[in-house]
Specification:
5 helices, mainly alpha
Amino acid sequence: MGSVVRYLMNLLIQGRAGPDFPLGTMMINISGSLILGALATIGLETTALSPDLRLLLMTGFCGGYTTFSTFSLDAVQLMERRQFQRASWYVAGSVGLSLVGTIIGVGVTRELIRAARDRA
């Protein structure tokens, strides 16, 4: 399922962005990092996800959705076209913003869990 969603998202994003910069892969990896951070937090800090469901969502869906190999190939292709500045922005942006996505996913999910526990 994650691979199908990745394919469709890439078509949508890259179709609008054009071929000059791999924005689709970058946005997929950033959003996947946010989703993985949220799922990890839910899985580790609540009993809402069984171990099997956590494995399915985190490894199955997120593993299929995000794509480090495509990220690496895109970066190499930018370098082969001698677009070194774009390649640098792509690598730094992908890694940095994916980390930010994970931090946001963990932080927002912790706050939502805390708020739900306070209401209970």
